[in-house]
Design a protein that fits this description.
Helices cover about 50% and strands about 10% of the residues. By secondary structure, it is an alpha/beta fold. The chain has an eight-stranded parallel beta sheet with strand order 2-3-4-5-6-7-8-9, sandwiched between helices. It has a two-stranded antiparallel ribbon with strand order 1-10. Helix 3 (about 40-60) runs antiparallel to helix 5 and helix 12 runs parallel beside helix 13.
Length: about 500
């Protein structure tokens, strides 16, 4: 991949084969598009506490520690460990972790919750991304520990079959959107627009209803992009997606970055979308740390949200969903210090300010990757991020996304939001509202209600998902015991890096 240098690669290990298979990650797991942060001292403490607790509780329950971690009680234990280190941000108790019946009863009571994850990925069968292929092979061979994984990391983990298992069988996700990323090199798209459409057809044919939704990628300014957009719209995508930095896969050579408010370029695409009845425009923003900016300064002006407000104002009939909530990413300690000093988070606060600043209500925030990374790196930043977005955009304008399968099954992220509460001191100081119960109004809206409204999924369609072909497949899988892999499919920073 274009971003990761030789020094970056030398310090990485494959998360799938070298990280402990715990219910939640115990350090940042990054995809190939950016380098992960080193495991912090507090993350090491979480890991130590979780492994000790897992050993004790698994023996009392007559299970191996690995099998215990695959259970609902094991998931509860992970959040107990987080609370022990970071303070009581998550609803979890040692009693739940120590009592399988209590944990299982809670899990089953929430299993029917409607969760619509509109930010997921897998790779095409004929992928030729040298970053994904060569880097995974090289890093995997160096770091593979058969005692941890039983097998080396393979590219198949990032393809369709494993995607279905991780997203639909091993999590409570009911519907998902498959996304992609463009490149100036046509062969290096994660998935082509037609491949996404075919995946949607395949899954929905098995299910007998709408389980899988798709993007079509658009690339403003690239040669022939308007004609390509016409062809993409003929596939009847559920929404469109663009990257304002252009080629995010090969940032160093990205030739066609663009601005959302460019009347001469982007607006021509919006006009075509509106005419075709495609009203949802998803845009990748953020995940652009100061370290990344130093490497690619030519892309920095396109990575933030300064171009969002005017575009939203000029196109009130379109809905703009800002992916990753524009979070910059980087050192979690610095993010927490910034919030404690200023009450703001880089670019996230700018995004949340847009409705009041521009008088618009058609801007939404997606939680893909940023909820995951902040939850395991610094949960108070995660809570602050949620508070800022809900206060500025409204709970009805924050949308669930996980960026799975890079971070494995999305179930641990689902549990994270179900259990997370913004601390009282933070609510008082910043005017944040409570997130409330796992199945309360705020979390219900974020998990599925907001996406259902945007994508036209009604109550009858939601109810039918519990009886369709994919539901039957999952029921059979669970009846056989269900074995979550607890794998992640990105990279972690080695301790010696």
């Amino acid at each position: 991949m274009g971003f990761l240098s030789d020094d970056d690669k030398a310090g990485l290990e494959p998360a799938e084969t070298t990280s402990p298979r715990t219910p939640i990650p115990v350090q940042m797991v990054a995809s190939d598009e950016y380098a992960p942060q080193v495991q912090t001292a507090r993350q090491r403490e979480v890991q130590a506490r979780l492994m000790e607790m897992g050993g004790d509780l698994s023996r009392h329950q007559g299970l191996s520690r690995r099998r215990f971690f695959q259970t609902s009680a094991g998931m509860a234990a992970a959040f107990v460990a987080l609370n022990d280190v970071y303070g009581p941000l998550f609803s979890a108790s040692r009693a739940e972790a120590a009592t399988p019946d209590i944990a299982q009863e809670r899990a089953e009571s929430l299993r029917g919750q409607f969760i619509m994850d509109m930010h997921t990925h897998f790779l095409r069968d004929d992928t030729r991304l040298t970053g994904f292929v060569r880097m995974r092979e090289a890093v995997g061979q160096r770091g593979w520990n058969p005692d941890l994984s039983g097998r080396p990391q393979t590219l198949e983990d990032l393809k369709f079959d494993n995607y279905i298992k991780e997203v639909f069988l091993d999590s409570d996700t009911k519907a998902a959107l498959i996304s992609s990323a463009p490149s100036d090199i046509p062969e290096d798209w994660f998935l082509t627009n037609s491949q996404m459409a075919k995946a949607r057809e395949r899954v929905n044919a098995e299910a007998g209803g709408r389980r899988l939704f798709t993007h079509a990628i658009f690339t403003p300014g690239a040669p022939g992009w308007l004609e390509a957009l016409d062809a993409a719209l003929e596939l009847r995508p559920d929404s469109l997606k663009g990257y304002t930095v252009g080629d995010n896969t090969h940032k160093a050579t990205s030739r066609y970055p663009w601005r959302m408010d460019d009347e001469a370029v982007a607006y021509k695409g919006y006009e075509k979308m509106a005419a075709a009845g495609a009203k949802i425009v998803c845009v990748h923003k953020g995940l652009f740390s100061t370290e990344v900016e130093a490497q690619f300064p030519h892309l920095a002006p396109f990575a933030d949200v300064r171009d969002v407000g005017q575009a939203a104002k000029d196109w009130p009939d379109l809905t703009f969903v800002i992916y990753h909530s524009a979070y910059r990413l980087g050192d979690p300690a610095k993010a927490l210090a910034q919030f404690e000093d200023t009450g703001r988070l880089d670019w996230v606060s700018d995004l949340a300010d847009i409705p009041e600043k521009y008088g618009v209500n058609n801007v939404y925030a997606d939680l893909g990757q940023v909820f995951a990374q902040t939850m395991v790196a610094e949960p108070r930043v995660c809570a602050a991020l949620m508070g800022i977005l809900i206060r500025g955009l409204g709970a009805d304008h924050v949308c669930w996304g996980t960026d799975a399968v890079w971070t494995g099954s999305p179930q641990w992220q689902i549990e994270g939001l179900r259990r997370l509460e913004i601390p009282e001191d933070m609510r008082r100081a910043h005017g944040f509202a409570e997130l409330g119960a796992a199945d309360g109004a705020v979390k219900t809206a974020i998990f599925g209600g907001n996406n259902a409204r945007l994508y036209g999924v009604d109550a009858a369609e939601v109810a039918a998902l519990d009886e369709d072909g994919l539901a039957q497949r999952k029921a059979a899988y669970l009846a056989q015991g269900g074995r979550p892999s607890l794998r992640r499919y990105g990279y972690v920073r080695s301790a010696s890096a």
